[in-house]
Amino acid sequence: MNTISETKELTQTGEEEFSPAQWSAIDAIIERHKFKPGSLIPVLEEIQETVGYIPTCIQERAALGLIVPLSEVHGVVTFYHFFTTTPRGRHTIRCCLGTACYVRGGQGNLNEVIEELHISPGDTTADRRFSLETVRCLGACGLAPVMMVDEDTHRQVKSSKVQEIIKDYD
Ligand code: FES
Question: Both 12 and 69 in a single domain?
């Protein structure tokens, strides 16, 4: 059985992305939940809340610390959409491509965001200002096309207004 200190030596990939204080916080979360059945998802949630994302090095640490196969940790991280393996931007843009939004110009709005930020859906800008996602419906079809930035819903968005919307988020 590996202890947390042993797992530190085993875990190398991407370790330098996190500070010693962040690794201590991650280890504390794992230790707190160790030996508790069904603790994998709560542990990963808590780690993501603490450091923002769950790259391979953290998946390895969790697997070794909780004594579960790495494949199981990886499976959970990739199955649930709320887990992310890459750093997130300070703001998340969600462009709706559901039918109502699509036929009213949603794709054009998405293209405008892509052109403005030089990223594709699923990516984050190099300065970590924005992450970009597409969604299939935001439940506001009557206001299509809809685009969300964080919790703000922008309605009946014209592609000519996209740049203006984005610039309001630092
Ligand atoms: S299709 Fe876009 S909000 Fe429903």
Answer: yes
